[in-house]
TrEMBL record:
The chain crosses the membrane at residues 12-29, 41-65, 95-121, 145-163, 175-195, 215-238, 250-274, 311-332, 352-380, 386-403, 423-446. Pfam families: SNF (PF00209). Keywords: Membrane, Transmembrane, Transmembrane helix, Transport. This is Sodium-dependent transporter. It is a multi-pass membrane protein. It comes from the Bacteria. It comes from Simiduia agarivorans (strain DSM 21679 / JCM 13881 / BCRC 17597 / SA1). One of its GO terms (cellular component) is membrane. The keyword Transmembrane helix applies.
Length: 449
């Protein structure tokens, strides 16, 4: 391995970094809101099944390509085939993945900035600075620019420090803090009136709904996207993983942690919604369905915190700290995709690459802020609705069809010599070659309807 690349020094460091990439706002915010929008516990059941039938095999495709290539996504996909056309298309796919990850980070930075604003507002509220609180919780160009700059700076600082001193060090600190805060908040919310009703909605499934097409598509998309698949983040992290580690076990641990934290976040958000209802806050839309999307975070929860009296400020402080940490653990993985490519392909030092790439992505964030109504939603749809699933399909196809079977087996045997005799090896190659691409394409097609 070349010197600039670095490597995760411990198994714990890799698991925390990979889980941190997966555990972003898509888990703490996205999973509970999808659950709320899709019938509660029935969605949870389908999500659990699809996380292991779809997301885990696709995650393994990225990890195995990354560790085999020991390179960024462009070099990794381009080097899987010695045929010029396949190699060229692989490099093109890698570059498109870099662009997609950068565009996702550009709008993600803005949303994460909102979390920082509400975190700061909890502090100013405690200090009685009402004017500052009002400014921090009101949508404005100036506020969005400042908060996005702060978040972008935090992400840039971590990535510029390298793999061990940046990604691994901070993921190993932030993820345990995230889990601890999440558990503390759950313990508090479950003592509030109305919480048990939310638990019933979350934990008692209406099994008649598990075969609803819209619910299945939503669960499939959530399972796939919450693991940061399709843009090369896991591929790059896999390239920093020691050859001594068993990839199937590492992938399974990351999937279990991701699914586990998503489920645990639901134990906070859904009960909190019904606690809010007890406080007189509306938690359903005009059709009588539970409010989903960002409305939970920005319309339901802040009034709930206000209704809790003096304790509400501390709960708000803990909650938005949790959200900011979740956003940061994901953003560092997204920035690493273009930075790793720049460092390796253009022989640029990591701090310079991080500054140039991070600054360029922040410039795109500024463009979105100044043209919020026309560009913000467009970029989200372009990247997460269209680009990410198609990139995921190509990565699975390259792993299944271009990556030669003997080379694939040899790579997996690096960390687990008996892999050829395991159930994983008997099922996974065919699964990632045919089943995963078809499932992703089916979800993609149905999402366009």
């Amino acid at each position: 391995m070349s010197a600039p690349r670095g490597q995760f020094s411990t198994k714990f460091g890799f698991i925390m970094a990979a889980a941190g990439s997966a555990v972003g706002l898509g888990n703490i915010w996205g999973f509970p809101t999808q659950t709320a929008s899709n019938g509660g516990a029935a969605f949870v059941v389908v999500y659990f099944v699809l996380a292991f039938l779809l997301a885990y095999p696709a995650l393994m495709a990225e990890l195995v390509i990354g560790r085999h290539a020991r390179a960024n996504i462009v070099t990794a996909l381009g080097g899987l085939s010695d045929k010029p056309a396949a190699s060229l298309f692989g490099r093109f796919t890698g570059f498109y993945g870099v662009i997609t990850a950068s565009l996702i980070l550009s709008f993600y930075t803005i949303v994460a900035g909102w979390m920082i604003c509400y975190l700061a507002a909890a502090g100013t509220d405690l200090l009685g600075q009402d004017q500052a609180t009002q400014w921090l919780t009101s949508m404005s160009t100036e506020r969005n620019l400042l908060s996005s700059a702060v978040f972008a700076g935090l992400t840039l600082y971590i990535i510029s420090s390298g793999v061990q001193d940046g990604i691994e060090k901070w993921s190993s600190r932030l993820m345990p803090a995230l889990i601890g805060l999440l558990l503390l908040l759950i313990a508090y919310v479950l003592t509030q009136k109305g919480a048990m009703e939310g638990l019933k909605v979350y934990l008692l499934p209406d099994l008649s709904r598990v075969f609803e097409p819209t619910l299945i598509v939503s669960a499939m998309g959530q399972a796939f996207f919450s693991l940061s698949l399709g843009v090369g983040t896991m591929l790059v992290y896999g390239s920093y993983l020691s050859k001594e580690e068993s990839l199937p076990r590492m992938g399974a641990l990351v999937t279990v942690i991701d699914v586990g934290i998503a489920f645990t976040a639901g134990l906070l958000i859904l009960p909190a919604m019904f606690v809010a209802q007890e406080a007189g806050i509306t938690i359903t839309d005009a059709a009588g369905n539970l409010i989903g999307d960002s409305d939970i975070v920005f319309q339901v929860l802040p009034p709930l915190f206000d209704s809790m009296g003096p304790a509400g400020n501390f709960v708000a402080l803990a909650f938005f700290t949790l959200m900011t940490i979740a956003a940061l653990t994901s953003s560092i993985s997204m920035l690493e995709v273009p930075v790793s490519m720049t460092v390796e392909r253009f022989n640029v030092s990591r701090p310079v690459a991080a500054l140039v790439i991070g600054g360029s992505i922040f410039a795109i964030s500024c463009l979105l802020i100044f043209n919020f109504g026309t560009l913000f939603g467009f970029v989200i749809d372009l990247t997460t609705k269209y680009s990410q699933p198609l990139l995921g399909v190509v990565i699975c196809l390259y792993c299944g069809w271009i990556f030669k079977r003997h080379a694939l087996l040899k790579e997996l045997q690096e960390g687990q010599e008996d892999i050829a005799q395991t159930l994983f090896w008997k099922i996974w190659p065919l699964y990632v070659k045919i089943i995963c691409p078809l499932l992703i394409l089916a979800a993609f097609w149905l999402s366009l309807g």
